[in-house]
Amino acid sequence: MAFPIKVCAICSEEFELKPDKPGFANRCPECSAADETGSAATKQRMDADERKATAEANEARRQAIRELLYRKDS
Hints:
Blueprint: E1 5-7, E2 14-16, H1 29-41, H2 48-70
Antiparallel strand pairs: 1-2
């Protein structure tokens, strides 16, 4: 069975869309690989205060969702 032929949204080259292809379905493997390596370099590290603030915000979100899901309607 032949794979569908797609056109890359970035470089406009044709490529075969194969199963288990990394990246986006509308980008060729070369453009997908370039995008993945670029995003890893832009990740920033967080210090202790930022991690604590993020953890507290996540806990508040979890608590709010829990209250919405499991509240008793009286």
